[in-house]
UniProtKB/TrEMBL annotation:
GO terms classed as biological process: L-methionine salvage from methylthioadenosine
Keywords in alphabetical order: Isomerase
Source domain of life: Bacteria
Name of protein: Translation initiation factor eIF-2B
Length: 300
């Protein structure tokens, strides 16, 4: 698939999920560069800017582009090989991180636990799938309007043999808060699209209401994510999506507010499940600076 097609599909959310966006975007960039062996650094920067602009709230992709560009001080004839090598290295780091996160995450889950999740995180789905091998899990997941990504989650979990109940988004907080013995939520585990240096999380809109309810109901609230989703500029922009996604034939006078993501302050998060273990949000900055020093673009 061409780079322009991948960029279009990312914008239309035909390609969705932070990790999937990063993988497909970077592979398409590598393919584009290798199809034009005369590419110079200015052209490479142009392509990187085009890809970065496809989704403003996807640091995992943006950091991959930063990793490529920090290696780009090479001769023109070496650019294609440099991009291929950098993309391969970065995607290998993502995969190793995912493997570790799945190990740490599945250890959180106990037999008979009922877990709530929101939207679609391939990483959360993998954690739950692995945990199901030793536990009789139940999962409550939200349908995740307006694009219903929660249905992807439900399909993956059912295929793994997990009992799933899908609910409308507006019911989630009530279920968390009104804990009942036979319908208790033991833990909430969601993914993330972006992280701040302070350990705050940005995830699909609706996530904050789950975190808020969990705080008051004393339900542990975890975020499973690669620490490479940290926004190195610490200037996260929450994308506003088209009103067409919410109400295609709305009255002209009605204004639609359709942010793609929620902001979840670190104080509402019990722990972040990272490649470094399950950490308190305030520990994130130190670990990222130690393990990924190339991300320190500006003073943090």
């Amino acid at each position: 698939m061409s780079l322009s097609s991948v960029i279009s599909d990312i914008k239309k959310i035909k390609i969705q999920g932070a990790t999937n966006i990063a993988k497909q975007g970077l592979l398409a960039l590598s393919s584009e560069v290798n199809s034009n062996m005369s590419m110079n650094q200015s052209q490479l920067l142009f392509y990187c800017d085009q890809l970065a602009g496809s989704r403003p709230t996807e640091p995992l992709l943006h950091n991959g582009l930063a990793y490529i560009l920090q290696n780009s001080n090479v001769q023109k004839e070496q650019i294609a090989a440099m991009v291929s090598r950098s993309v391969a290295d970065y995607l290998t780091t993502i995969q190793k991180s995912e493997d570790l996160i799945i190990q740490y995450g599945q250890k959180l889950i106990k037999p008979q636990d009922q877990i709530m999740t929101h939207c679609h995180s391939s990483l959360v789905a993998k954690i739950l799938t692995v945990a199901q091998q030793n536990n009789n899990l139940r999962v409550i997941n939200t349908e995740t309007r307006p694009l219903y990504q929660g249905r992807i989650t439900a399909g993956e979990l059912v295929a793994a043999g997990i009992t799933v109940s899908t609910i409308v988004d507006s019911l989630a907080a009530a279920i968390i808060f009104n804990q009942q013995k036979n319908n208790k939520i033991h833990k909430i585990i969601i993914g993330a699209d972006a992280l701040s240096w302070q350990g705050d999380v940005y995830n699909k809109v609706g996530s904050f209401s789950l975190a808020l309810a969990a705080k008051y109901a004393k339900v542990p609230f975890y975020v499973a994510t690669e620490s490479l989703k940290i926004d190195s500029d610490n200037q996260i922009i929450i994308e506003r999506r088209s009103s067409e996604e919410v109400w295609p034939d709305k009255p002209q006078q009605v204004q639609i507010i359709n942010p793609a993501f929620d902001y979840i302050p670190a104080k509402y998060i019990s722990g972040i499940i990272t490649e470094f273990g399950i950490i308190h949000p305030t520990k994130l900055k130190l670990l990222v600076k130690k393990n990924y020093p190339w991300l320190i673009i500006k003073k943090k």
